[in-house]
Specification:
The structure holds 2 protein chains of 2 kinds. By secondary structure, chain A is α+β, with helices and mostly antiparallel strands. Helices cover 18% and strands 31% of the residues of chain A. Chain A contains 4 helices and 14 strands. Chain B is of the alpha+beta class. In chain B, strands 1, 2, 3, 5, 6, 8, 9, 12 and 14 form a 9-stranded antiparallel β-sheet that branches. In chain B, strands 4-7-13-10-11 form a 5-stranded antiparallel β-sheet, with no helix packed on it. The longest helix of chain B has 19 residues. The two termini of chain B are 31 Å apart. Chains A and B meet through loops of A and strand 7 of B.
Chain lengths: 210, 203
């Protein structure tokens, strides 16, 4: 079997000591698990993601023309479930479960969409303005997750930020960190001014919030 | 990125929702001028205090300057609680379908004074642990828009800022996790009634 395909899976019990989940507080609309993925795992995901065809992102099915480029400039590809990517799905599932159990206890039935491999490029000022992950076409998204794929020193700007108070919260940038938040929380990615930032964006689904 | 003022919508009666992502509900003429008069008379008779921000002991004037009084469920104002219960049920059935306990908290009678720059910065109504979880927030406009300047309730419902209906007697409802603020009143006085509907935590 190709070494690339071996699931680099670590039981939760082994990973636990290294885990730091920031508890949800009135001033923190997200939870973060720094080091949720290891460098070697990230290298494998990156190799897979970079080999995919990348399109300019759309907004809920609308092509991004001039009209929408003010809102979003991102290159995206889709990591579909397959024997080769199953380990990524499995690992992400255990991360999501842990964060959800600790913080929100939402009813979650699974991943609603393929994982989105997103690339923000300094040369094109990649960004994504304030938005929420819910809407007519995304009604059942409940928890959104972002996996930081790039070393923070390799790019400037491109912060994932949240607006749930009179101030703005900026998510940790460390490579391998997973940031989770309810899909109704207002968030953005600030313009990238240098380098390239890669991330994986994941949505989970379940019964409508009630 | 402001949307058109909602008052341009030709809605004769009943609640309607606006916003693609997170639904905000406007209900024009939810209360008659006579009813609003009665609410204001009752509210003005309550003991006013300066609003504090939960959990904060420091000076929060940059965040909020509001006079508030708490309107408890008592015989003299029971009709208002009963009416709002019915309205919340209708709004919830039509737009949200959340699990709710009911009107657990007292209503907040809020007064924004132009003379002191009354305002309330961006915030959400969820997250505090010292009361039942808030699920739906409502604001009832008690002042004629010609009686003040500024004081707009602005909601960030995911696809741009939304300016709430200002007409006297209008009721605005939104999920309590929606980011919102009241811009400074620059002249006159804006009165409103704030209502929170409690329920089990979102799941």
């Amino acid at each position: 079997m190709d070494d690339m395909l071996v699931p680099p899976y670590f039981p939760a019990a082994i990973r636990k000591p290294a885990m730091t989940v920031q508890e949800l507080s009135p001033n923190l609309p997200y939870a973060c698990w720094e080091g949720a993925f290891t460098d070697s795992e990230l290298d494998r995901i990156e190799a897979h993601g970079d080999a995919l065809a990348h399109d300019k992102a759309t907004l809920f099915g609308r092509d991004i023309s001039e009209e929408y480029s003010e809102i979003r400039i991102t290159r995206t590809a889709w990591i579909k479930p397959s024997p080769q990517t199953k380990w990524i799905y499995d690992r992400m599932q255990s991360v999501v479960r842990t964060l959800n159990d600790r913080v929100w206890q939402f009813d979650i039935s699974g991943f609603s969409e393929d994982f989105q491999y997103t690339i923000y490029q300094g040369s094109e000022g990649g960004h994504y303005d304030w938005h929420v992950d819910q809407g007519d076409l995304a009604k059942r998204r409940k928890l959104s997750m972002s996996l930081q794929m790039s070393d923070p020193s390799s790019y400037d700007g491109c912060d994932l930020q949240f607006h749930a108070a009179n101030h703005i919260d900026t998510a940790p940038r460390s490579r391998g960190a997973v940031i989770a938040f309810p899909s109704y929380v207002l968030h953005r990615v600030t313009p990238i001014t240098r380098g390239i930032r890669k991330s994986i964006v994941v949505w989970t689904t379940g019964p409508k919030f009630r | 990125m402001s949307q058109e003022p909602a008052s341009l919508f030709d809605v004769k009666s009943g609640p309607f929702a606006i916003g693609q992502a997170l639904r905000v509900c406007f209900w024009k003429n939810a209360f008659t001028p006579k009813e609003v008069d009665a609410i204001v008379a009752y509210g003005d008779g309550l003991e006013p205090m300066r609003a504090e921000i939960a959990g904060r002991k420091d000076n929060t004037d940059h965040m909020r300057i509001t006079r508030v009084a708490w309107m408890e469920r008592k015989p003299g104002i029971e009709w208002l609680f009963a009416r709002l219960e019915q309205m919340v049920l209708q709004i919830n059935a039509q737009f949200y379908n959340y699990d709710l306990f009911g009107l657990v908290e007292s209503f907040q009678y809020t007064v924004y004074e132009g003379a002191e720059g009354g305002h309330y910065g961006w915030h959400v109504d969820v997250g505090e642990k010292n009361y039942e979880p808030r699920k739906i927030s409502l604001s009832l406009q008690l002042s004629d828009p010609s009686g003040y300047e500024g004081g707009d309730l602005i909601l960030q419902a995911g696809d741009g800022e939304l300016r709430a209906e200002k007409s006297r007697g209008a009721l605005i409802a939104f999920p309590s996790f929606v980011l919102h603020r009241v811009v400074p009143v620059t002249w006159g006085t804006r009165k409103s009634l704030v209502i929170w509907v409690a329920g089990p935590e979102f799941r």
